[in-house]
Amino acid sequence: MATGKSMRWIKAAAASCLSNSLAQRAAFRLHRTKTLFLMYHGIAHDAEEIESSTIVREGAFRRQMEYLKENFDCLSIEEALDRTGHQAKRLGVVVTFDDGYQNNLKIALPILEEGGIPAIIYVTTGNVCERQLFWSDKIWIAARRSALARIDLTGISNGFGEYSFLGTGEQWQDCVKRLTEDIKRTDPSRREEIAEEVLIRFRESPQAKPFDINVEDNVFTPLTADQVSALTAHPLITIGSHSHCHNLLNQIPLRQAEESIRKSKEILEQLTGKRVEHFSYPNGNLTPDIVTLLKDAGFKSAVSIPPGFFKYGDDPYFIKRIMVGPYTTLDMFKARLTGVLELASKLS
Ligand SMILES: [Zn+2]
């Protein structure tokens, strides 16, 4: 069985081969009638100290957008859904952002403007209205700022034990992800509470450096209600919903899921003065019942997480996306867009 390190090497080597122009041209010709949806979350300045598995640096994002502009038809979500691909000479691409971070406006938007690239931002209204950070982002801040090499979380919940935070970069991120994944597996009704208990353990560890978590002026700060309203008027931006509560919708009672979906739509429509018709499932989790809820609420499309292409006639409530993360090199990015690297991601 390949280790994480050797798998990373294999993927990097595969990406290097696939990103060469010949392989790419062939793949792009093959798929030109289709559209790719790219999944981003937050974009941070290159010098930003905080790390997270979902934060892409500004410099990398700019290079990726330049590449899209040169090689793809950059589309709004409406254009993508209506695109038959009949006359298409190039693949379509849609840039999407989940969660609704303020950095989408402050850092990503000026780069999108440079290339005239449309994007959709799926906003979690609970975080916007209640000025809350996501629990997972608070864990990333605590792990980085406390600078702990290990922490004992025994007794927090079933299955929790000791966690080590080793190395740097991707290796360190994998360690933190192990903890956030364990929290994600806990009972949704207690998850926020458990995450707060974990934060207390971080703070109270004798070796921990003291740290604050401020909601505002932070890499993870959510958009304000006024910013959501202002973004609506921007010709490149579409506002979509990412639910109100950001709970994994298949893990909560259906009535709660319905309330979260409808509340988010209602708030966003008040803020934007437009119909909000596109949805992103938190964590990509969905069931047929949740799809029915979306249709009944008036949504026209919904994006998920499995990688793949979208083509006219595909189910618009199960749109696949290619995730772009902090360690997606430009070679890897180019290779992902050929579609062949989906195979490599299945191996990891
Ligand atoms: Zn999310």
pLDDT < 50 stretches:
none
Unique ligands: zinc ion
Number of domains: 2
Q: What is the average of the pLDDT values?
A: 91
User: Secondary-structure element sequence?
Assistant: HHEEEHEHEHEHHEEHHHEHEHEEEHH
Radius of gyration, in angstroms, nearest whole number: 20 Å
Count every beta strand, where a strand is a DSSP E run of 2 or more residues: 13
Most strands sheet: 7 strands, mixed
CATH topology of the largest domain: TIM Barrel
Class of secondary structure makeup: alpha/beta
3D structure, described in words:
By secondary structure, the chain is α/β, with parallel strands linked by helices. It has 2 domains: 4-131 and 220-347, TIM Barrel (Alpha-Beta Barrel); 135-204, no CATH class. The protein is 46% helix and 14% strand. It is built from 14 helices and 13 strands. The strands form 4 sheets. Strands 1, 4, 5, 6, 9, 12 and 13 form a 7-stranded mixed β-sheet that branches. It has a two-stranded parallel ribbon with strand order 2-3. Strand 5, helix 5 and strand 6 (119-123) form a beta-alpha-beta unit. The radius of gyration is 20 Å and the shape is globular. The N and C termini lie close together (10 Å). It binds zinc ion. The site of zinc ion has 5 residues, from strand 5.
Short note summarizing the structure:
The chain has 348 residues and is of the alpha/beta class. Helix content is 46%, strand content 14%.
